[in-house]
Every structure is written in structure tokens, then in C-alpha cells.
């Protein structure tokens, strides 16, 4: 093949080379293959008066030819980042050699706009708008594009990947979001029964209409159409949706749908980028619209991925703020690789830290969390690899005021001590320090006093605590004088006399009430009080017997027995 004589050689992004003869006559566009290292086609162009044609439209070429006006031989220009590559360069040449006219459509608008911006094709030529101005005018009509045209344009924007396309991407995404807002207010695909209807401007293509009918609900018909977007563009799209006050529940569903669809073909690195984007976008939403179950689902997806620390912290913060809505199954997250114990205790501690940092002051949520953590501790207690420090950290992470009872925690400690028989006395003491004996039930205290796994010091301490509670309850029982002073009881008390004991007085005064309709609640209260006093007396006697046994069996513990106040009779 005979080589052509060219004055200018243009290498576009290493994809194709354009040979330009600035003195030759205008020729038709011809392609021929030559042997180059990349084996890509070289386009041979013979163009008439290159200096007076292409340079009048492109300021960048004008500067290049101006610098080489005195040079002889062949000139070579290399573009490393020409937007759209050879296709964009060819579109720019066609515009220049077609007297400043071009067939601009949604399929090439963004490509032409980026090429014009790159080649500095701004000033009008012979009263004819230059390429950049023409593309900007066409872009102003984007609100009239069909749904299909918007998708085509957005795909082209995404493929360009140049800074100059960011404004156009935002414009296209903004139009799409506006279309979705209108659709959510009306119907997924507005009726287009008449081609002259104004709704045609906001109509969806047939593919989207079909997906509405077959696969998607009224609010999610567009999910499938936007799966081609990169994580970066999805983030831009979601931010625009949030600014337009779109339903956060729908946005969350789209993100999860996108993540699930993309994961099937994504590499590990791509999966990290996708899930990080999903987490970051959820972090900007109203968390009341994002179920706790959804967040734990995202968490389980991240377990095998090395996502950024920032995204992981955001996810843990979101979960921690909703910890009162979690279940025990949610918390049973396996430990990361290299950790000996079964479940990820450190993760739960971070959840607790995030929850407590929220500090809304509400009693109900923190009590729910306290109950949940006690269940979790009981679940992980049999793990033989669980360190004492981790167990104690969980047991003491919840404020004392959040627990009404320590019975569940006591049973978890009992189980932990039963499995970890090798613990030293010091470690056992540390674990037992997490108990509040004042909030143990009488049954739990009785069990503890007989539990050989616990140090004897705490068995005695539990009994002392229960004795104190019993005495306080007995002191709170209404005395004889208080009832004798009551007008409605004076006659009944005089008839019965003053020889009865406290418990008998309760029975006496409750049975001799002259009950009216207004006093029925008082009678029920007194009957309940009578039953409670009798039960407490029985338990008090049991504790006296138990204390006697402890005193006899533990010679070394006689000092504790001596320190006990006298039990109630």
C-alpha cells in the first residue's frame, strides 16, 4: 500500500491515528490498516486548507499550528485524554468541515459537548454558533427528552469519565429524578394516549412500561433501568433524590436492589465500592425509615469484605442507634478470622457504645437493650474461648439503672463459671463484682447462697442484701395505730382488741372493713399486702436456716456470719 504524504499526524488516546494533509485537496474519508504495535486502524484524512478550516473552530488547534508555523516536515500531536477517544475527535472534525453544522441528538450530545470543551470550540464563526454553544442549546431541551433518551445520554456521560462531563451528568440525573418525583406523585408511567399530550414529555419507554406491568410495583418500576450506573453515579442520584424529598424507604430499597444485582458479577474490589456507597447513602437518610433488619443485612454482606474503616464506623453507628429494635439473632455475628471466641463480642460493645452515646434519656429503649444484652451474655457464656475481660466488659457496659433485675445476668455468670472451671479466685471475684445484689430476686439469692461456684463472700453478701430488703418491706407494712386512727376502722378495732400480731392485724382490719364502692380498691390492696407479708415471713425463716448452715460449714467465713444483723422472726 502506498503511503500518503501528510503534514500532521494526530494520535488520539493511543486508539487511532489521524493523518492530516493541510495542503491537500478535500478527499473522502478512507480507512486502511497498517502494521502498528496496537494493530488499531489508522484513519487517513486529506483535508483542504486545514489551517483556515479546523483552526477557525478550534482555539486549541490554532495555538498548535501557530507554534509550528516555521517548522518543516511532518508534525505530530498526541492526545492522551481526548473525551470520547477517536469517536469524539471524528465528530469534531465533521463539524468543522461541514460548515459548522452537526446532527446533534441525545445519543451524541454529551460526546460533542465534551469534545467541544476540550478543543476550545467556543467563539462563533461567520455568525454561526460554534459546537459548544450548539450543544449547550440542545442541552436546555433535556426536559423534553423521553425516558429512553435520558438513559442513552446518561450512559454516554458515564462512559466519558472526564471532569467536563460532571455538570452534564448532574443535569441528566436531575432530570431523571424530577421525572421520578412526578411519576411517584401520579403513576409510574403517565398515560400517552395522544401523541400531542403534554405527558409525552414525561413518558417512559415501552421497556419501562412493561416492567411496571410485570415485575415492579408502582414506586419501584425504574430500578432495573438504572442498574447500569456506576456506584459514583448512584451516589449522585441518591443525593439528588434526598434533596427532592423522595421517599427514603423507596431509595433504600433501590440501593439494596442495586447491591444485590451488581454483586452477582462484581469483583471483590467492586463489591467493596458498591457496599461502601450503599452504607454512605443510608447514613444520610432518616434512620426511622430504615429497618434495623436492613442494617444487619448490610452488616452480614460486609463480613467477608475489607471495606473502609469510615464506612464500617458509619454502619455500626446506625445499628447502634437502633439497638433497641434488634433481636438476639441479629447480635449473633461470627467473630472475624483470627479471633478464637465464637461470636464478635467487640462488635456488640461498639454497638452499645453507639447506643449509649445517643443519650436520648428515654427509659424504655435502654431497658430493652439491657434485656437484650443479658440474653446475649447468656448465649455466649458457654463459649470456652471467651475471655473473662470480654465477659465482664459486656456485663458492666449497661448502666445499673437500666436493669430492674440482675437474675438473667446471674444465671449467665453461673453458666460461665461452670464452663470456665480453670478461673482463678481473683477472676471469679471480678466477674461477681458485676452483680447488684439489691436487684436479685429472693429465689436467685437463695440459689447463689448454695452455689459453690461463687466465692463464699458473695453468698453471704447476697443474704445480707435480702435481709435488708425484707426488713424494709416489713417496716413499710401498715402498723396497728395507723389503722386504729382510721374512722372507718375504729369500731372494728375496738371489738377485736389489741392482742394480735402484725400479720394478724392485717387480716383483722381487712376483714372488718365496712366496704363501700369507693373502698373496693383499698380492700384489694390490703389483701395483697397481707399475702405479701406472709410470703416474706416464710422466706425469712428459710434464710435463717440457710445462714445457720453456712455458718457451720464455713469455718473460715465466721467473720461474715458475725457481721450479719439479726434476722426477722
Automatic annotation (TrEMBL):
Biased composition range(s): Polar residues: 480-493
Pathway: Protein modification; protein ubiquitination
Record Pfam families: NPH3
Keywords: Ubl conjugation pathway
Domain of life, source organism: Eukaryota
InterPro entries on file: NPH3/RPT2-like, NPH3_dom, SKP1/BTB/POZ_sf
GO biological process annotation, one example: protein ubiquitination
Region of interest: Disordered: 480-499
Ranges for domain NPH3: 220-469
SUPFAM superfamilies in the record: POZ domain (SSF54695)
Family to which this protein belongs: Belongs to the NPH3 family.
Name of the protein in question: BTB/POZ domain-containing protein isoform B
Organism: Glycine soja
Amino acid at each position: 500500500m502506498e503511503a500518503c504524504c501528510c503534514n500532521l499526524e494526530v494520535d488520539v488516546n493511543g486508539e487511532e491515528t489521524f493523518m492530516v494533509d493541510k495542503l491537500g485537496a478535500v478527499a473522502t474519508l478512507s480507512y486502511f490498516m497498517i502494521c502498528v504495535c496496537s494493530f488499531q486502524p489508522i484513519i487517513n484524512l486529506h483535508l483542504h486548507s486545514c489551517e483556515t478550516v479546523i483552526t477557525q473552530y478550534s482555539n486549541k488547534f490554532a495555538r498548535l499550528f501557530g507554534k509550528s508555523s516555521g517548522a518543516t516536515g511532518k508534525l505530530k500531536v498526541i492526545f492522551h485524554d481526548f473525551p470520547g477517544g477517536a469517536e469524539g475527535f471524528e465528530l469534531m472534525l465533521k463539524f468543522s468541515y461541514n460548515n459548522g453544522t452537526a446532527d446533534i441528538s441525545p445519543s451524541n450530545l454529551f460526546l460533542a459537548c465534551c469534545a467541544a470543551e476540550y478543543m476550545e470550540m467556543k467563539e462563533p464563526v461567520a455568525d454561526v454558533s460554534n459546537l459548544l454553544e450548539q450543544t449547550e442549546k440542545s442541552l436546555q431541551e433535556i426536559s423534553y427528552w423521553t425516558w429512553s433518551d435520558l438513559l442513552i445520554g446518561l450512559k454516554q456521560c458515564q462512559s466519558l469519565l472526564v471532569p467536563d462531563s460532571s455538570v452534564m451528568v448532574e443535569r441528566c440525573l436531575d432530570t431523571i429524578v424530577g421525572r421520578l418525583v412526578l411519576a411517584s406523585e401520579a403513576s409510574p408511567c403517565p398515560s400517552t394516549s395522544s401523541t400531542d399530550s403534554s405527558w409525552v414529555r414525561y413518558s417512559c419507554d415501552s421497556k419501562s412500561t412493561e416492567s411496571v406491568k410485570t415485575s415492579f410495583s408502582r414506586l419501584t418500576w425504574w430500578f432495573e433501568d438504572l442498574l447500569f450506573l456506576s456506584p459514583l453515579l448512584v451516589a449522585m442520584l441518591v443525593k439528588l433524590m434526598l434533596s427532592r424529598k423522595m421517599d427514603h424507604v423507596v431509595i433504600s430499597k433501590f440501593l439494596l436492589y442495586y447491591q444485590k444485582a451488581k454483586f452477582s458479577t462484581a469483583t471483590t474490589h467492586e463489591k467493596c465500592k458498591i457496599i461502601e456507597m450503599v452504607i454512605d447513602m443510608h447514613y444520610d437518610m432518616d434512620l426511622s425509615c430504615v429497618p434495623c433488619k436492613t442494617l444487619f443485612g448490610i452488616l452480614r454482606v460486609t463480613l467477608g469484605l475489607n471495606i473502609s474503616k469510615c464506612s464500617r464506623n458509619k454502619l455500626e453507628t446506625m445499628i447502634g442507634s437502633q439497638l433497641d429494635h434488634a433481636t438476639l439473632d441479629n447480635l449473633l455475628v461470627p467473630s472475624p478470622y483470627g479471633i478464637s471466641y465464637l461470636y464478635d463480642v467487640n462488635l456488640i460493645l461498639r454497638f452499645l457504645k453507639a447506643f449509649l452515646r445517643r443519650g436520648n434519656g428515654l427509659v424504655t429503649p435502654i431497658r430493652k437493650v439491657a434485656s437484650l444484652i443479658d440474653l446475649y451474655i447468656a448465649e455466649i457464656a458457654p463459649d470456652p474461648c471467651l475471655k473473662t475481660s470480654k465477659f465482664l466488659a459486656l456485663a458492666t457496659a449497661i448502666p445499673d439503672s437500666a436493669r430492674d433485675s440482675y437474675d438473667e445476668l446471674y444465671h449467665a455468670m453461673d453458666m460461665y463459671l461452670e464452663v470456665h472451671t480453670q478461673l482463678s479466685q481473683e477472676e471469679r471475684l471480678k466477674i461477681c463484682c458485676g452483680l447488684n445484689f439489691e436487684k436479685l430476686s429472693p429465689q436467685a439469692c437463695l440459689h447463689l447462697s448454695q452455689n459453690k461456684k461463687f466465692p463464699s463472700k458473695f453468698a453471704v453478701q447476697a443474704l445480707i442484701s435480702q435481709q435488708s430488703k425484707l426488713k424494709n418491706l416489713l417496716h413499710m407494712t401498715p402498723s396497728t395505730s395507723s389503722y386504729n386512727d382510721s374512722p372507718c376502722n375504729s369500731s372494728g378495732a375496738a371489738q377485736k382488741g389489741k392482742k394480735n400480731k402484725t400479720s394478724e392485724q392485717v387480716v383483722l382490719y381487712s376483714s372488718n372493713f365496712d366496704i363501700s364502692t369507693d373502698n373496693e380498691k383499698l380492700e384489694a390492696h390490703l389483701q395483697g399486702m397481707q399475702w405479701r407479708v406472709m410470703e416474706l415471713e416464710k422466706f425469712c425463716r428459710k434464710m435463717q436456716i440457710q445462714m445457720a448452715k453456712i455458718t457451720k460449714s464455713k469455718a473460715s467465713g465466721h467473720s461474715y456470719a458475725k457481721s450479719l444483723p439479726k434476722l426477722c422472726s
